[in-house]
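User: I'm new to structure prediction. If I give you an amino acid sequence, what do you actually give back? Let's try with this one:
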Amino acid sequence: MTEISASLLTLDKENAIKTMYNLEAGKINYFHIDVMDGKFVEKNTTEIMKDYALTASHISNLGLDVHLMVENVEEFVDEYSMLEPKIITFHIEAMNNNEERIKNVIYEIKNIGSRVGIAINPDTDIEKVKKYLPYIHMILIMTVVPGKGGQTLIAETLEKVKKVKEYIDENNIDIDIEVDGGINDETSNKAIECGANILVSGKYLISSENIGEAVRKLKE
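Assistant: Good question. You get back a string of structure tokens that encode the predicted 3D arrangement of the chain. For your 220 residues, that looks like this:
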């Protein structure tokens, strides 16, 4: 079953609450919180995303899908733990190949009761993350270069989705595959065909006149 995680990155602050209500009414599954520290990626969204996460947690029962595009992963895991996110995802590239650190972060996220995701950038080989797949709940494959919303999906990244899907099936690993970047009604079916079952979509959903219809098209 395909799930939809609505990115709040391009949300208009003045209409944030109304849009969140409309997204929930449109049958999304998660609010996707794009936390950027201005170091791992150029943009800094730490304050606005914390504000949106707090708002969403107060007005909605939908889970938070927290995507940490940050260098100091541990700090932000701790900061968001009080909101009890459904998922916290961190980037393998932020961990400097430190296996002990990666395992510790996985443990800490599980310890607060959240599901664990590891994200990889478009230019990162899936070999970097294979050894961790049996111990986490989700792999997030970036289908654009992280750092800003509204980008066009990089077609080559879908081959990576397909390879990950083949690997987890061959090794009988129970894990979700999430894709993030350039997901709309034209690219969603390609991502699903390649094996993705959680789709992150922001601008496409938020700019739609009928969010419920847009969600339905994403899932088709």
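You can read the tokens as a compact description of the fold. Here is one thing that stands out. Strands lie at 3-7, 30-36, 63-69, 87-91, 115-120, 138-142, 176-180, 198-201.
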